[in-house]
């Protein structure tokens, strides 16, 4: 038992970090030690200390509290985008793959067109159209991230629907909904789970990146990327302002990647 | 007449694609077993799939008890026509236990739990399968056991007609004999009609009342059992070749 746990220590460690981040994101207003929005110029740019664990920023706000509160935007935002994108990819991929014909052709052409451009560029264009802001950024990222998953689902459904047991289920009079939910999706969902887990990390980097560029979440909201952006002027004098948000983004993205790898192992999915 | 196939034709690919079936016609009476004999690739399985409504024919018509069958329609006949495939492992959802797989047609029919349980047990007895196997997954059963389970699943929805597509080809000789005997007995018990697709002349002779020989997408010969149990003689060279191609 202990040896199994030891082998899975990376999984346990990353899952614990993600669970903690999730809980902080949910209950941030109740757990932050100091109001993350309250500035005090008398305590600006203080280094990490017992009182302010991660120091204070240029407006005298507690960096630790802002990081905890920022989980609501960066972590929860990325999670919501990845979940909605995964649901969309399952629905669209399943309909296209199962129905086939004209619908499938339209889907394939759209996805090919989208694959021709880097996802960052498409998101950048969409954010440019919708304008900066949390909801607009999330909407743009959903529009970018649903497609690879939908292609994966569509391809799997096209293959699986020709399996003999699906033909048998059809002969038994099973409805399309029953065939999809009982005989097709149980094989597809583990793959989507792996991809979606990997996507959360990627979406988080996108949110942070866009906020860093000033196109995502706007100050004074304490999004991790936006915190990096506003701290860039003080990097040499107060490096903790960039080190801690950078570190937390790194740890969270790494944790999602480790979790995704373990899902892959658990469900015997080839890379 | 349970099944009537009229001038069915099928091609794969576009206009100049390969023609698999050309004007195939056959009929199967109640409680009759018609064997469809032919070498690999002559279109036997395609015809089987067209007959049960899994595939669309380019031309021709299929009638089940006088009603024309169209792919994706005729819900009334949906579970009255069944097919059992050659490879039983691919015919079962690997994520479902045998109990779940056998209950599936009954769940679709909205059969109550108690009746479901009774019908599964009865059918297991009929195909001589142990109830202990119900909790197992397909990969935990032998080929013979799984083929019996596939037959049980086809029978559980009380069909009129079953297509057996090379059901004994992947089994050893002993299992082949057991399955053929079982099919023979079940046909009598449940008043079933069979289309038995095979390339094995001996198996066809054992189970069928009539043998049709399919060659290059056409029925080139057919023989029936005489009153004394002997068989009429084939006339077509391909049919004779098939008859003679038995290991001595």
From TrEMBL, chain A:
* Signal sequence range: none
ABC transmembrane type-1 domain boundaries: 75-260
Any GO BP annotation? transmembrane transport
Q: How does it sit in the membrane?
A: Multi-pass membrane protein
The UniProt family comment states:
Belongs to the binding-protein-dependent transport system permease family.
Q: Where in the cell is it found?
A: Cell membrane
PROSITE patterns given for it? ABC_TM1
Q: Which InterPro entries does the record associate with it?
A: BP-dependent_transpt_permease, MetI-like, MetI-like_sf, OppC_N
| Species the sequence originates in | Geomicrobium halophilum
**Phylogenetic lineage:** Bacteria, Bacillati, Bacillota, Bacilli, Bacillales
Q: Which residue ranges traverse the bilayer? A: 73-98, 110-131, 192-217, 237-259
A Pfam family of this chain: OppC_N
Q: Which Gene3D superfamilies match?
A: MetI-like
Which keywords, in A-to-Z order, does the entry hold? Answer: Cell membrane, Membrane, Transmembrane, Transmembrane helix, Transport
Q: Which GO terms describe its cellular component?
A: plasma membrane
Q: What is this protein called?
A: ABC-type dipeptide/oligopeptide/nickel transport system permease subunit
UniProtKB/TrEMBL annotation, chain B:
Report the leader peptide range. none
Q: Biological process GO annotation list?
A: transmembrane transport
Could you tell me one molecular function GO term of this UniProt entry? ATP binding
**Which segments of the protein form a coiled coil according to its record?**
none
The record's keywords, sorted A to Z, are: ATP-binding, Nucleotide-binding, Transport
- Any idea what this protein is called? Nickel transport system ATP-binding protein
Keyword hit for Repeat: no
Say which domain of life the source belongs to: Bacteria
Question: Which family, according to the similarity comment?
Answer: Belongs to the ABC transporter superfamily.
Instruction: Tell me which PANTHER family the record gives.
Output: D,D-DIPEPTIDE TRANSPORT ATP-BINDING PROTEIN DDPF-RELATED, TRANSPORT ATP-BINDING PROTEIN
Q: Which InterPro entries match?
A: AAA+_ATPase, ABC_transp_ATP-bind, ABC_transporter-like_ATP-bd, ABC_transporter-like_CS, P-loop_NTPase
One Pfam short name: ABC_tran
Q: Where is the ABC transporter domain?
A: 3-241
């Amino acid at each position: 038992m202990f040896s199994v746990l030891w082998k899975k220590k990376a999984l346990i460690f990353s899952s614990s970090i993600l669970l903690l981040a999730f809980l902080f994101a949910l209950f941030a207003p109740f757990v932050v030690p100091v109001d993350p929005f309250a500035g005090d110029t008398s305590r600006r740019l203080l280094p990490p200390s017992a009182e302010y664990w991660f120091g204070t920023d240029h407006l005298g706000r507690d960096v630790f509290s802002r990081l905890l509160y920022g989980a609501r935007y960066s972590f929860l935002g990325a999670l919501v985008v990845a979940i909605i994108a995964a649901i969309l990819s399952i629905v669209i991929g399943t309909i296209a793959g199962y129905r086939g014909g004209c619908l499938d052709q339209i889907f394939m052409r759209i996805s090919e067109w989208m694959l021709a451009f880097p996802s960052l560029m498409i998101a950048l264009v969409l954010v440019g159209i919708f304008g900066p802001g949390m909801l607009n950024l999330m909407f743009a990222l959903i529009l970018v991230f649903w497609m690879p998953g939908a292609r994966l689902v569509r391809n799997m459904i096209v293959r699986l629907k020709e399996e003999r047991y699906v033909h048998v289920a059809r002969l038994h009079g099973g409805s399309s909904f029953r065939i999809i939910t009982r005989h097709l999706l149980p094989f597809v969902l583990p793959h989507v789970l792996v991809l979606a887990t990997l996507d959360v990390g990627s979406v988080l980097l996108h949110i942070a990146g866009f906020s860093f560029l000033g196109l995502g979440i706007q100050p004074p909201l304490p999004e991790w990327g936006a915190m990096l952006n506003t701290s860039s002027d003080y990097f040499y004098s107060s490096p903790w302002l960039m080190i801690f948000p950078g570190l937390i983004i790194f740890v969270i993205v790494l944790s999602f990647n480790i979790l995704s790898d373990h899902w892959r192992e658990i469900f015997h999915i080839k890379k | 007449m349970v099944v009537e196939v009229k001038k069915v034709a099928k091609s794969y690919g576009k206009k100049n694609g390969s023609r698999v079936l050309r004007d195939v016609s056959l009929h199967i009476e109640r409680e009759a077993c018609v064997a469809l004999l032919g070498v690999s690739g002559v279109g036997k399985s395609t015809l089987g799939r067209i007959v049960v409504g899994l595939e669309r024919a380019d031309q021709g018509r299929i009638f089940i008890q006088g009603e024309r069958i169209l792919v994706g329609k005729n819900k009334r006949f949906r579970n009255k026509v069944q097919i059992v495939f050659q490879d039983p492992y691919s015919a079962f959802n690997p994520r479902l236990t045998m109990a779940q797989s056998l209950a599936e047609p009954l769940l679709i029919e909205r059969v109550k739990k108690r009746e479901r349980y009774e019908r599964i047990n009865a059918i297991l007895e009929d195909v001589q399968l142990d109830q202990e196997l119900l909790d197992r997954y397909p990969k935990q059963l032998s080929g013979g056991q799984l083929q019996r389970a596939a037959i049980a699943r086809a029978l559980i929805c009380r069909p009129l007609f079953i297509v057996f597509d090379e059901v004994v080809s992947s089994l050893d000789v002993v299992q082949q004999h057991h399955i053929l005997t079982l099919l023979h007995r079940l046909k009598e018990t449940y008043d079933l009609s069979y289309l038995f697709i095979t390339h094995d002349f001996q198996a066809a002779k054992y189970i069928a009342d009539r043998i049709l020989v399919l060659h290059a997408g056409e029925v080139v010969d057919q023989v029936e059992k005489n009153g004394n149990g002997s068989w009429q003689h084939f006339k077509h060279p391909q049919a004779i070749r098939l008859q003679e191609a038995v290991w001595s």
